[in-house]
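Severity: low
Component: inverse-folding endpoint
Summary: output formatting inconsistent between runs
Steps to reproduce: submit the following structure tokens with default settings.
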């Protein structure tokens, strides 16, 4: 359904280091970049998630908004969580099984350095 999604960030270098680590844990990487933009995905030139530099001009979405990244395994969810905390992210619900969202739902919930709510999830029924 979605073609791509982008976040405005106040410090591109800091945010790119964070997303390099957390998305790298899930098998994604940088596929496009310039001085004000970093795009992530799995195929060169085809970003599906992007960071756009907007120093001093970031307005975060309110409660109820978050982005969930697909993880290939429970181990990747744990690596995502650990990488987030090691690179300036904050816990926003922990990592592990979340049966309240369905059987086999394993996820990690964090906030990135700008305060965006993100999640890594693998759900196996």
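Observed output (run 2 of 3):
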């Amino acid at each position: 359904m979605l073609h791509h999604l982008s976040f405005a960030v106040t410090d591109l270098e800091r945010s790119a280091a964070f997303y390099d680590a957390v998305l790298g844990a899930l098998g994604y990487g940088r596929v496009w970049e310039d001085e004000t933009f970093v795009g992530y995905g799995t195929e060169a030139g085809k970003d599906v998630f992007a960071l756009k530099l907007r120093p001093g001009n970031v307005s975060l979405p309110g409660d109820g908004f978050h982005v969930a990244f697909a993880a290939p395994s429970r181990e990747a969810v744990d690596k995502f969580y650990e990488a987030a905390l090691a690179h300036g992210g904050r816990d926003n619900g922990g990592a592990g099984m979340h049966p309240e969202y369905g059987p086999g739902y394993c996820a990690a919930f964090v906030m990135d350095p700008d305060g965006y709510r993100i999640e890594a999830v693998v759900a196996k029924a």
